[in-house]
Amino acid sequence: APSDLSSQLESLREEVLRATGDDCLYFYPFSALHCTVASLLKFTSGLGKHLAKADEKEQTAYIDKWKALVDKVYSHKDFPRKPAKVTFQRPELPGTTAIILIENQGKEVFQIRDLLKQECKEPPDKYHLQINIPEITHFPNIVHSSVARFKSPPKDEKKFREAFSTAAAKWKPVTCELSEIYLTVETVPYMHMDKSSAVKKTYKLDEKSTKSD
Known about the structure:
Blueprint (H helix, E strand, L loop, with lengths): L1 H19 L4 E3 L18 H8 L2 H19 L9 E9 L4 E7 L4 H12 L24 E7 L6 H12 L5 E5 L1 E5 L10 H4 E6 L9
Antiparallel strand pairs: 1-4, 2-3, 2-5, 3-4, 6-7
Helix pairs in contact: 1-5, 3-4
């Protein structure tokens, strides 16, 4: 399934470029393709900016607190215990970012989000160092992957969006298996980082396990 996704995204990029001659849309590296269950600490928040400049000891201590919170969610009786089916639908370009809506018939992603929301009512160190932050977490209300964004305004926006829609109409839905989620630290914007260094903990959707790796 991943190869079907990558090949179709590449075909989409090439067709739009051929039709418009306008290289204004930057497609993310396929290795960066992901679906965000939740942003536990937004990098745009005051606390996020503070921790980005903090020393490694302080960063590690804070990450460990989030690990403990997610561990608690993972051990909850309502956490999904088997792999979920997800289907990548036709790409869309609603604004400045191209996205793919993901159909999750079993609602496992929403189930995990709800459990996280319950635990994140008072996130760890919400008022760390006297920084008053009403909302440091973010829970999307859709299941999606961002695949591209404008790096410059299109020369002819109407023509460009029409070309994108025409190319996207050829998309064939791709069904994959969601077998694990990750607690990651975003070291660069848009999650374009090496997975081996970004992933701090792995949580498997496995009925045989209630412990994370």
